[in-house]
Design a protein that fits this description.
single chain, about 160 residues, 7 helices
């Protein structure tokens, strides 16, 4: 399941990278990519994830290696923490936000994604497609990213 998520996210990152370059070259902006941005954010925040109907038991060695590979906030939380009871990840935000591929996206797209993500997590963005993310999950993700994601814009730290 982790591999499937990882492949899906990398495909989205690649697609956004390509489409951003194409739209910027053709039109000088990326305003036409709104639906692709929303789809990426839904994937990043796992909003369309099917709930687990029964707990999953993974290979203990894989679970240990996977979980230990992620950065942790001062409370010991990580986006790599697995739930495996009702959903895949404990905190519904993809660990691939730390990936070199995400960081290598064109600045205009990465800045847009980080702004929208911040707005979603802080409740400023009331888009119904993100409404089912629980307030406590939003807060936890925001705190984890603030503590563990280098190079976030200053507004992430000041709000």
């Amino acid at each position: 399941m982790v591999l499937e998520h990882q492949a899906h996210m990398h495909n989205y990152i690649t697609r956004l990278n390509y489409e951003t370059q194409t739209m910027t070259a053709m039109y000088g902006h990326i305003r036409y990519l709104t639906s692709q941005v929303n789809a990426f954010l839904r994937c990043l925040l796992l909003t369309e994830e099917a709930p687990l109907t029964a707990p999953i038991v993974g290979d203990p060695a894989f679970v240990q290696d996977f979980v230990s590979a992620g950065p942790r906030d001062p409370q010991g939380r990580s986006l790599r923490d697995l739930d495996l009871q009702t959903r895949l990840f404990k905190y519904p935000c993809s660990f691939l936000i730390y990936s070199p591929a995400f960081d290598a996206m064109p600045v205009v797209m990465r800045d847009l994604l980080l702004q929208r993500l911040h707005d979603i997590l802080t409740g400023k963005d009331k888009d119904p497609q993100f409404a089912k993310i629980r307030a406590e999950d939003r807060q936890a993700i925001l705190e984890i990213l603030r503590a563990t994601k280098p190079n976030l814009p200053e507004y992430w730290r000041s709000s």
